[in-house]
Amino acid sequence: MNTGQGASLAGFLPFSSSSLWNTDISSAPVDPNSATIISNFVGSVNVHPDFGTDPTYGIPYIVVNGSQALVNIDFGAYGDESDPGPMPVPANGPVEGGASSTGDRHVLVLDNGNCFLYELYNSTPNSDGSWTADSTAVWDLLGSGNAQRPYSWTSADAAGLPIFPGLVRYDEVAAGKIQHAFRFTLPQTSTAFTPPASHDAATSSDPSAPPMGMRLRLKSSYDISGFDANMQVILTAMQHYGLILADNGSALYVTGASDSRWGSDLDSLKTVPASAFEVVLMNPVYTNSTAPTGAAPTISGFTATPSSVSSGGNVTLAWSTSNATYQIVSPGVGAVRGTSVTVNPTATTTYTLYSTNQYGRTTSTVTVTVP
Q: Can you list the positions of beta strands (E) in 195-295?
């Protein structure tokens, strides 16, 4: 991955080929309620590309290198379902809608040295370089299988999903091929979710309303030959990977990243009607009460060697865990792989290991004394 705001990923595809984001669903069966959902909850609208050349329109992202300074994150509304810092969020990290926006204020940061994705919701930079956010989530971009939050947990997105993998990005369009689904919104959603979503944010009491995670697919019979080459790349992805319902919002708004290279051809997407889409079979569909349950990760050991050290001395934190999807050490370390890390505390510090999987989170602490 290159570095910078809106940087090209140079062909890198987040998550494994088995991720539901990256699964070709062109031959998947149609949901039996497809026609009703399209008629009643998508409506007589056309696709709306929720991005363009305006830098305040769409969701921006930035790619940093592995030496980007880690900063603390102060939590707001959803701290109990958030991943703790520190995170490599630059003080000038691009905020959705611009620095003074009053919207969702997402911040998306990809670390190309360690291949983690950091996403913040309703985020604001602080004068000391730290950030305040209502919700944060860390995603292992090298993770196998279907990356997800614990069932019933939110993320920086209402559906508990990562945002970045669902963006329409110019670098992929220019490369001539997109191999993942896109993020989209609808105004009415139910108290349910279907994978890869893990959370609902219901705006309707109607049980037939769409669950978060519902996938639309552009029908194979829809003729895209009249669109220019760049738009055919986007529409082909809609036929093969579809659109995943990720948040409440305007009907059939498809999210992308702003880029000065988008052309007027983007407007041609606005001619594609909702009737050109179908709902892919939703199975399973969960509510908070019916979501799968299981064991959170097991931490069988978390140690510090030595446990007492002079200021700035080397300490090895080591852990043994099982069934963890990803792990974070806080303070000072952040998202980690492997089974150990070296820290250099300058004062007595209690470190916490957070081990998380789809069923929950387990923590363990160890204190290093600095006399």
A: 215-218, 243-248, 253-255, 277-279
**What are the Cα distances from residue 105, in Å, to 56, 99, 134, 177, 321?**
11, 8, 10, 29, 35
Written as six digits, the tokens of 315 are 């300490």
DSSP symbols for 250-306:
STTEEEB---TT--GGGGGGGG-BGGGEEEBP--S-B-TTTS---PPPEEEEEEEES
At 123-148, the pLDDT tens digits run: 999 999 999 999 999 999 998 767 78
Partners of 286 in the beta sheet? 193
Are 50 and 253 in contact by the 8 Å Cβ rule? The answer is: yes
Q: What is the pTM of this model?
A: 0.96
Distance CA 218, CA 174 (A): 21
pLDDT tens readout for residues 323-370: 999 999 999 999 999 999 999 999 999 999 999 999 999 999 999 999
DSSP, collapsed to helix, strand or coil, labels residue 29 as coil
**Which domains are present in the chain?**
4-279 (no CATH), 298-368 (2.60.40)
CB atoms within 10 A of CB 175: 14
User: Cβ distance 41 to 210 under 8 Å?
Assistant: yes
Residue 120 · residue 133 · CB < 8 Å: yes
- Count CB atoms within 10 A of the CB of residue 120: 27
Question: Alpha-carbon distance 20 to 31, whole Å?
Answer: 17
- 19/180 Cα distance (integer angstroms): 9
- Sign of the C-alpha dihedral computed for residues 322, 326, 328 and 333 taken in this order: positive
CB 118 within 8 A of CB 138: yes
User: What percent of the chain is helix, strand and coil (3-state, nearest 5)?
Assistant: 15, 30, 55
Q: How far is CA 302 from CA 26, 57, 140, 150, in A?
A: 46, 45, 21, 22
